[in-house]
Automatic annotation (TrEMBL):
Record Pfam families: HATPase_c (PF02518), NIT (PF08376)
Full protein name: histidine kinase
Transmembrane segments: none
Region feature (Disordered): 589-615
Keywords, sorted A to Z: Kinase, Phosphoprotein, Transferase
EC number, as in UniProt: 2.7.13.3
Catalytic activity: ATP + protein L-histidine = ADP + protein N-phospho-L-histidine
InterPro entries in UniProt: HATPase_C_sf, HATPase_dom, Nitrate/nitrite_sensing, TCS_sensor_his_kinase
Alphabetical list of PANTHER family matching this protein: SENSOR HISTIDINE KINASE TRCS, SENSOR HISTIDINE KINASE YKOH
Domain annotation Histidine kinase/HSP90-like ATPase: ranges: 482-589
Annotated source species: Nonomuraea maheshkhaliensis
Length: 615
């Protein structure tokens, strides 16, 4: 893995460095296919904007306007043909080029408004401005390059080009008499242009700044500033068109020279980056080869010894230890397997010894745990059996006392004691279930499921709050009646404990496609989704009994009883805000209802349920 990581790292370094060089080389391609055609379109649209403004001032003829439109269309078509070659370099460039397509296609609509007299000069100038702004957005997008000096100079050059664009906007607005709205826009454009020129000149390097400084300090530029001030003041200077036209051409030539210079700078930088990439990649490759040879030589022996250790560890983990654990669960005597490994490497030999020690400790802990669990189970079982015997004798005495009692108050107290004894019997059965044994109660014949539900409700403390609703006549097989009564009683007990005392707990039951389903619903505070998920997992897969987890004995008993008879217990939220427990009894434990006539006759001679003590 370390060698593979080094190879991948070498490949990444080489690819990244080479991609930087290729991207710098593509700067020239982008200039040829996008930026230069865009500059030409901008120049022609600027000229069309000027002559359209003159046409609206009745100072230009229709043939001149038509001729300029043809030149603009030719530049637009050339841009579309060349931009297709480079527009797919990235999603951002493709989006910007599509935006330019959308804007330059509006030229025909702008021209139609001019020809029909629906557009004044201010609206016409702003329509052309929107198209040119999109083209400058394309310039700024494609000028992104990894070489910071070239990118910074390219960004400033684009700003200077945009300053020239602002000058041509002034040129179109400053023709003749200027309206108040045009003067307001003219003032804004003049301020933006002056600020942009002053800011950009300080960021250009000397080779690109000197031609710009020569233009800014020329008499023509100073005359331009005076004319701008006159227009802002409301005047109409003479020679405005000739002065601005000459400066616009000069600025255009200077910007093209600066952009061409930056394009030429990118190629040697790309060569330098590529050379550095080859040097770095070669050095890294040499180091990778040396590392591979050294690792193969030094690691061959280690790999063999580690392979032997791995096989020994797998044998212990997959064969010996499971065999030991299986014997421990059966109560058999076990012998701890040892890991024998001969190694010439001290570290690997120490690992083998440490693994053998860990194995010995794990087996000893498992033996102790098994013995402890078995001892606790015996204690639970013995205590529960003794309690069962005493409780059975107590129930016989209570039954005899109930038959002899004549005072209603005493009879009521005896009934309460009998109910208390029933609950104590259920807790004793819980101890037997925790010990891993089976309770003693059983029935010889199937019992109606309604009677099962009533019997479960009778074993809880707040049985007065339990409402057992009518059910269909299906019966439950006798051998599982005791466990199902205990299971449902535990669920009813939880429902009464975790719900307000003034609310009722409802027990419903009905036949299902695969057996019979009980529902125990309370109207308490409910549980969160995390708690429901945790409890349902425990009910589906009963965990090993943990003595420290005494707060969940009821849940453990329910899961043990459900697993014993393949019963599925699920908890979910109740529409009333509480919790609903659904108990699905498999169809093999459910019998069809018995005939009503024989049953009515039989009820005269025998009780529906009979408790049978286990040995």
């Amino acid at each position: 893995m370390p060698l593979a990581s080094m190879v991948v790292l070498w490949g990444v370094i080489t690819a990244v460095t080479a991609s930087e060089s290729l991207e710098l080389r593509q700067y020239k391609t982008v200039w040829t296919n996008l930026r230069l055609p865009a500059y030409k379109v901008i120049t022609e649209i600027q000229r069309e904007r000027l002559i359209s403004a003159r046409f609206l001032r009745n100072s230009a003829e229709k043939p001149a306007v038509a001729a300029q439109r043809l030149r603009t269309d030719a530049a637009r078509d050339a841009f579309k043909q060349l931009s297709v070659k480079s527009k797919d370099r990235s999603e951002e460039i493709r989006t910007q080029v599509d935006a330019v397509y959308t804007q330059i296609d509006r030229l025909d609509a702008v021209r139609g408004e001019i020809d029909t007299g629906l557009s004044d000069r201010l609206h016409t100038v702003e329509a052309y401005n929107a198209i040119i702004d999109t083209l400058f957005g394309l310039h700024r997008r494609v000028a992104m390059i990894d070489d910071i000096p070239i990118y910074e100079q390219s960004r400033v050059t684009i700003d200077m080009s945009y300053a020239k664009e602002l000058l041509t906007r002034e040129q179109a607005l400053g023709l003749g008499t200027v309206t108040r709205a045009e003067r307001r826009l003219f003032t804004q454009i003049t301020g933006n242009r002056r600020f942009l020129v002053d800011q950009s000149l300080g960021e250009l390097d000397p080779a690109l700044r000197d031609p710009q400084v020569a233009l800014i300090t020329s008499p023509a530029y100073q005359r331009l500033r005076m004319m701008e001030d006159q227009i802002i003041a409301g005047g109409t200077p003479q020679g405005w068109l000739s002065t601005t036209d000459g400066l616009a051409r000069s600025f255009q030539e200077a910007q093209l020279r600066a952009s061409t210079t930056l394009n030429e700078r990118a190629e040697p930088v790309a060569d330098e980056v590529l050379s550095r990439a080859f040097l770095l990649a070669g050095t890294a490759l040499a180091l990778v080869i040396v590392s591979i040879g050294f690792s193969l030589r030094m690691g061959n022996r280690l790999s063999k010894e580690l392979g032997t250790l791995r096989l020994a560890a797998l044998e212990v983990a997959q064969e010996r230890l499971p065999h030991v654990v299986a014997k421990l669960r059966k109560g058999e005597t076990v012998e701890v397997p040892e890991v024998s490994l001969t190694s010439t490497t001290v570290e690997i030999d120490d690992v083998g010894k440490a693994f053998s020690t860990v194995q010995q400790t794990a087996v000893e802990a498992a033996v102790g745990q098994a013995q402890l669990s078995e001892g606790v189970g015996h204690v639970f079982r013995n205590l529960a059996r003794r309690s069962q015997t005493l409780l059975h004798r107590q129930r016989i005495q209570l039954a005899d006392m109930q038959h002899r009692a004549t005072d209603p108050g005493q009879l009521d107290d005896l009934f309460k004691l009998d109910h208390l004894t029933t609950r104590m019997r259920r807790h004793a059965e819980g101890l037997i279930i925790l010990s891993g044994a089976t309770p003693g109660r059983g029935w010889s014949r199937p019992v109606p499921l309604l009677d099962v539900a009533r019997g479960a409700a009778a074993e809880v403390e707040d049985y007065q709050r339990v409402v057992v609703e009518p059910m269909s006549g299906q019966r439950l097989a006798g051998p599982v009646v005791g466990d199902v009564i205990h299971l449902i009683a535990e669920l009813i007990e939880n429902a009464t404990v975790y719900s307000p005392a003034h609310t009722s707990v409802f027990v419903r039951g009905d036949a299902a496609a695969r057996g019979f389903a009980f529902e125990v619903e309370d109207r308490g505070f409910g549980m969160s989704d995390e708690q429901l998920t945790e409890y349902n997992e425990r009910l589906a897969s009963p965990p090993e009994f943990d003595l420290a987890d005494s707060d969940r004995l009821g849940l453990f008993v329910v899961s043990r009883l459900a697993a014993r008879h393949d019963i599925r217990v699920t908890l979910r939220g109740s529409p009333y805000g509480g919790t609903t427990a659904i108990v699905l009894i498999p169809e093999e434990h459910v019998a069809e209802p018995e005939d009503e006539a024989p049953r009515a006759a039989q009820q005269e001679s025998e009780r529906p349920m009979r408790v049978v003590r286990s040995d």
